[in-house]
Amino acid sequence: MAKPVQEIAIMSQMAATSTMGGLSTGNHRRQNERKRQFFTFMHQGHKICRVTFLKLHACGKSRFEEIMKNYRMNGLIPRVHGNAGKTPNHALTYNDILRVVAFIRNYAEVHGISLPGRIPGMKSYENKKFLPCSTSKRQVYLEYAESCEGLHVKACAETTFNMLWRPYLPYIEKMKPMSDLCATCKEISGLIIRSANMQSDERITEAMQKALDHRSLVKKEREYYKDVLKEAQLLLKGLYTDAGNNYNPPLTMPLAMLNIVAHYSFDYAQQVHYPSSPLQAGPIYFLTPRKCGIFGVCCEAIPQQVNFLIDESFDTGKGANPVISMVHFYLKNHGLNSVSIHFNADNCTGQNKNNTVIQYLLWRVMTGLNASISISFLPVGHTKFSPDWCFELLKQKFRKAEVDSLDDFIQVVEQSSAVNKTQPVGSSNGELIVETLDWCSYFATLFKKIKGITGFQHFVVNATSPGVVAARQAVDGPVTQFNLLKEDVQIMEDELPNILPPKGMSTERKWYLYEKIRPFCRYQCKDVTCPLPDTPRLTGSSRQSTPGVDDPPDLAMEIEVPHSPRQSLEPPATQRKCGERTDDKNVWEENTEIEVIASFTANQRTPSVTCDL
C-alpha cells in the first residue's frame, strides 16, 4: 500500500475511534474534564495496544506522531511536505538552463552533420542534426563543464545536463554507425562543416546549395519510384480470380491482352552460410560453411518476391550473365505476361547498370516478347527499395532457424513471409534448374555499346523503334537517343545464347566441407551438405589453394584419406537426400583406412602418429 493511502487509512481509524470532550473514564482517579483527544486502537472489533496497532500498519512511532499532529491540525486530509512548492537553494536558475541549451546548440552547429537524404529507420529526419559517431554525451558535458570553469560560473551535474538535452533539444542526436552511405551526401556534409569552421559565408552558401540540389534530385527520383508503384497496383487491381489467395495468378484474362505496365524490382542480397544455428557452436565461427547466394525479383503490385537461391556448387558469379538469366527465367515462369514492363534496380554497374542489360531489353522488344520496356536506376547511396524489405524478412527468419541444407533454407524462405517465394537455381541432388546463358558474347555480335552509360538513370526501349534506346540523366531531364543495332544484323526469335555451365566447387573446397563443416551438420544432412568427395585430395605441388579454407600453419590437424583400391573398383556411393535412411545400419565411410597425421614443432623435432582403423 502506498504511504499516502496508508496514512489516510490510519487517520480514518483515528476519526472513527477518537474521543474529545466530556469527562475522563479513569477508575482509580476522580473524573476530570478531558483536555486532549483520545484514540482507541481497534482491529477487527477488538481493542489492541498502540504497539500492536503500529506493527499491523507498518508505521513507526515518530511517523505516527506526525500523522496525529496533522489530523489534529488539519483534519482528514493527506499530509503535505513542508518543502512542497518551495524552490531549493541548489536549483538551476533560468540563466543556467539557457547556458546549457545554448552550449549544446552551438556544439551541434560546429560538429553536427545534416544529411540531405533519407535515414533508414528514422522519421521526420529533415530538421535533425547528428553528432559524429565518435562523440558521446559525456564528452559534450565535459567540454561544457570546462567552459563553465573558464567563465567562473557553476556547472550543472551530468544527469541534469542530459535531462535538459532531451526536452529542449530533441532534434540533436548522436549518429549511429551506418554503411553504404551516399558518397555525395558525405562529401557535402564535410564541406559544410569545414566551411562553418572557416566562417566563410560564400563557401557556406555554396555548400548548402549543393546539399539542397542533391536532396531535391534524390527526392524527385524517390517520388517517381513511388508513383510508378502506385500506378502498377491500380492497373492490376481486380484482375485476379482469387483475391483471398494473396493476389496470386492465375488471372481472369491474359495480361498480354491488356495495355498495362507491370513493375518489377530486382537486386542481390548478402549471401548466407549453412549449416546455421541460432545457438552457434564456437569453432564454426572461424570456419567458412557452405555458401548460398540470394537474388530477388519483386513484383510490388501482387505483392510477391521470388528469391533465387544460388548454392555454391551452382554459382556462376555476379556479372551481367547470371542477372539476365535469372530475370529471363522469372519473366518466363513467374511473370505477369504484360505488354509493357518497368524495371527498377540499383546502380551497381557490374550487375545491373551495364550495356548487356540494356541490350537484353532491346532483344526482348525486337523478338516480340514485349511492346515496350523501361528501366530506372535509383541514385547511388539511396537505393533502398522493395527487395530490401523482403530480404530483411527472410534474414530475420534465417537467424532464428536451424538450417543444415538447401532444403532447410527453402523452407525458411517460404515461412518467412507470405510475400517471399523460392526458386532454387539447382536442387540438393545436383540437378540444374536455372541455366546461365552467355548473353554478353551473344549481344556483342548484335548491338553496339552506349558511351557514358553510368551518367544516365532512365532507359526506355520500344518495339516501334527497333534498336533505339532513349536515355535520360534525370526523371525530368532531356532525352538522348542511341541506335545500338549493328548493320546487316538479323535477330532470330527462337535463338538463345550458349549455356554457361556452373564452375562447381574445387576439390580442395569439397574436402574442406567434408572435414571441417560436416561435424556441425545434423546426421540426416551430412551426406547432402558435406558429402564425401569422389576425387582424392590433392597434395604437394598439385594441391589447389582455395581462399579461406587453408588450415592454420601452427598446431594444425590434417586428415588425409588415401585413394584406396576399393574406390577405384567400386562406383562412388550415391548421395542420400536430407532425412533419407539407408538399409544397412552399420554403414561406415567409403574408406576403411584413415591416416591421421598430427604434426607439431617442438624442440626442433616433428614426430608423427599414424593410426590405422
Automatic annotation (TrEMBL):
Region (Disordered) residue spans: 534-585
Annotated coiled-coil segments of the chain: none
Matches recorded under InterPro entries: DUF7869
Biased composition annotated in UniProt, kind: Polar residues: 538-547
Superkingdom of this protein's organism: Eukaryota
Domain DUF7869 positions: 321-467
Record-given protein name: DUF7869 domain-containing protein
Organism, scientific name: Amphimedon queenslandica (Sponge)
